[in-house]
Amino acid sequence: MSIKPIILADNWSLSLKHAPEGAEVPETIRGVKIPAKAPGSVYTDLLVAGLIEDPYVGLNELKTHWIGKCDWVYETEFHVEASVLGEARVEAVFDGLDTIADVSINGQKIGLAENMHLRYRFDAKPYLREGANQLTVHFYSCMVHAYQVEQEVGERPIGGIGTNEPLPYNMIRKMACNFGWDWGPRLLTCGIWRPARIEAWSTARVQDVRPLVTKADENDAVVKVHVDCDRAESHDKQADHVQVVCTLYDPDNREVARRDAALHADTEMMELHVDKPRLWWPIGYGDQPLYRLHVEVKDPAGQAIDCVDKRIGLRTVELNIEPDAQPYDKMGGLIQGEAFEIKVNGQRVYCKGANWIPDDCFPHRVTTDRYRRRLDQAIEANMNMVRVWGGGTYEDDIFYDYCDEKGLLVWQDFCMACACYPEEQPLWSLIEAEAYDNVARLCSHPSLVIWVGSNECIWGTFAWSAFGDIRTEEKLTWGEKYYLELFPKVLKDLDPSRPYWASSPYSGSMDRHPNDNEYGNRHIWDVWGSEGCSYYNYLSHYPRFLSEFGFQGPPTWPTLSRAIPEQERQWFSETSLHHNKHKSGQERGLNLLRDSFVVPESFDDQVFLASINQARAITLGSEWYRALSPWCSGVLFWQLNDCWPVSSWSAIDGDGRPKLLWYGVQKSFRPRLMTIKPAAVTPSGEDVGQLAVYLHNDHHEPWADTLTICKMNLQGQTLDTLSRPIEVEPRDNQRICLPEDWTAGPDQFILAELDQAVDDDKAWWFHKHDYEINYLETDLKYVLRDEKDGGQTLIVTSNVVVRDLCLLADRICESAEVDQQMVNLLPGDLAIFRIYCNKHLTLDELTREDVLRCINTVVRSQSDKSSALQHA
Fold first, then answer.
1. Nearby residues of 596 by Cβ (< 8 Å), 6 or more positions away
2. Average pLDDT per 10 consecutive residues for the chain, totaling 872 residues
3. Contacts of 486 (CB under 8 A, 6+ apart)
4. How many whole angstroms separate alpha carbon 849 and alpha carbon 801?
5. Which residue of 277, 344, 405, 862 lies most exposed, with the fewest beta carbons within 10 A?
């Protein structure tokens, strides 16, 4: 811009505009103006002002539901110089308004916002004056608006959203999970949720730059750069002589390509060629070199009047859905279908990762550091993909920038989730504009490798009783044209360089069930959602690509204790139930716990075992779906993160702490995985007796070693053994079946290990449920050592086999982090825990019974109590 933008961040005020009859508005809020921020939201501004209590703590959420029923006003004053008014165009720019809002300057309305997911530019020049100006944003109740639209277009079904009363979130273009979900609270906020500013310009400006990589190999890369421009006036002769210059710099900042063209239309396309390009690869498959694309708009005198920089990666991406050349052998019967493979630079990528939800109910609080920390946690857990789920938002550019830098692939849903969406106005135009805007904004990012039309919206019309027969019988639109017509057209118009898929799950055709094993991608929810279904049922599924499956567990102890007061720390207390938004989440969690354990009486023990259960379930499933490669090409569990303190399916809790699940998938997603699983599985998920060792080599080098498999007892004595060399080709699998008589009793297990293992590469298999296993009493020995880097090391040894040894150091100090959890030990083995904390921890603290824990102790404690009761 020739004139520096006026940033509208501070000096805002917030006030209540209108409250409907019956809204329980505190008197302290009526008739007052409080300081506010942009970006910000009503909830966070009220919280900072001390006018509401933290809705994440206790039952406070319930005390704030009146906020979403009210209208609110944001106001600020800003100063305009004469030079600003001298430009041809002056615009009020909002990168995000949540959600229904009138925007006014000096009392004159300049625009209406109706979509949280859109960028807005309003013509402000006619309403501005030199000197002081007043900007007002009047937000209307999103709840009231959603019901008004529903009355206009007719009610449509929505999926279950947890313990909250269903609200028509499908009638408004707002982050759906703000209305409450089965892991999230109902916090219907509003506000200026992304940056705002005043921009002044003349002649032309760059609106978007769309660099599409159409070819990339070791010899040549082709980038078609589409530059979308705005003109100050459509008939401006000056604009007809504007030049657009594109220059591409390599990662060492050397110019490698340059083109320029006259701006004859609103979009100009220039083709750049790069010799011997440095290719961008996903993490684990190569490096992530980023080129800098500099786009300049120059006036007829050759002066730059606007410029944009984009970082791009030279790579190609495709989705392979070809029929299989080789069918899959399942239980002696052959099945075949169509592949679902993400290919980057022609290389099939096995996708390992998780689903991403908004990291906060108030997304403006997710800072650059917080984005990076959360994505680093995904990478540290050996993930190479995150799926941005359709019930949240299109994330900030910071999110995708960091994924570009790290090679973390992004699966991006359009923001449609678990509902039937009307295709009538006003929604059609809003969704169309949203799709065009966000594809244009995000298409420069090499990490974004696939767009997907919705989350479960097609599946629901096939399988959910709440949706009835809307797809086949009722004469109501439900969203089909968005997924099968609109979104494919948007990608064709703006970004044909990326694959598109209609929904998650989807089988590639409306003539097939969308959650088919043999085609497309699957969601597996019968384990969590079906009574009497063990997590071993994961072993009965054989998806081509698994984009959702999940198993609940509580947050870490410091997060839980922040949200739930001490007197309420019981499994079925009112506050515990409130912090599990699944309608039967606490009950279901306890029932699934019974599948493996005798449920303990102690809340501490219940939380610990439920955390173990969650980790075991997802790691078992993740390892199995890796074992199915190449039939299965990806596994993304539900979910990576949380937005508040809650018992949910996440691996990282609402305060950003890794749960035991995170440590489990860190092992399950290692580049080289050895696991023991049944060689065949019944439809109910029970193994038929024979076991196999599976080796998945997600590495570019062959994997050669000597494998030793032992049958052992709980004293660590070897009862039987076999050994053989293994060699697994790069990006390949190998299955080694054990003898059919290698089954184990309640006091036995199978152990596999490699001669050349550089870390804990052992694989364990226990045939029996924990309550059937006679775990031995442990006599643990400890050594605590201070390290030069400020951390500490706890070394633990045992005299017997120990299962799932955990060091819960955050129970002593909330900042404590430990490098590993859930360690199995043979007698004489060392468990080496590295601890990082902002204070020095003692050996007595670290070996407390609620800090250093294992399954042996908890199960034996329950067995002793059971025996005592029987004896009595």
1. 609, 613, 616, 769, 770, 771
2. 86 96 89 96 98 98 96 98 96 98 98 98 98 98 97 92 84 97 96 98 95 97 96 64 94 97 86 98 98 95 93 98 74 76 98 98 98 98 98 98 98 98 97 98 98 97 92 92 98 97 97 95 92 87 96 98 97 97 94 94 97 98 95 97 98 98 97 90 58 95 96 95 96 92 84 84 91 94 94 97 98 96 96 95 97 95 59 43
3. 428, 431, 432, 435
4. 18
5. 405
pLDDT of residue 533: 83
Written as six digits, the tokens of 202 are: 């003349």
The per-residue pLDDT for 336 is 82
Written as six digits, the tokens of 767 are: 């045939």
Query: What's the angle, vertex CA 62, arms to CA 56 and CA 63, rounded to 5?
Result: 95
Cα 453 to Cα 142, 233, 420, 476, distances in angstroms: 24, 36, 13, 19
Which of 594, 593, 591, 568 shows the shortest CA–CA distance to 579?
568
> Rounded distance, CA 49 to CA 38, Å?
15
Give me the phi and psi of 488, to 5 degrees please: -60, -35
pLDDT for the residue 869: 43
Residue 234, Cβ density class (10 Å: 0-12 exposed, 13-18 middle, ≥19 buried): exposed
DSSP 361-407: SSGGG--HHHHHHHHHHHHHTT--EEEE-TTS-PPPHHHHHHHHHHT
* DSSP assignment of 235-298: T-TTGGG-EEEEEEE-TTS-EEEEEEEE--SSEEEEEEEEES------TTTS----EEEEEEEE
Find out whether 177 and 357 touch, Cβ atoms under 8 Å: yes
* Residue whose tokens read 């054989």: 542
- Give the span between the Cα atoms of 24 and 32, in whole angstroms: 16
Cα dist. 114→87, 117, 195, 478, 554 in Å? Answer: 28, 9, 17, 20, 37
- How far out from the chain centre does Cα 581 lie? 18
Q: 290: closest CA among 309, 272, 273?
A: 309
pTM across the whole model = 0.96
3-state secondary structure at position 775:
coil
As beta bridge partners, residue 227 has 209, 268
Distance of CA 4 to the CA centre of its chain: 36
In 3D, which of 524, 535, 570, 527 has the Cα closest to residue 770? 535
The strand ranges marked E within 471-613 are: 500-501, 522-524, 546-549
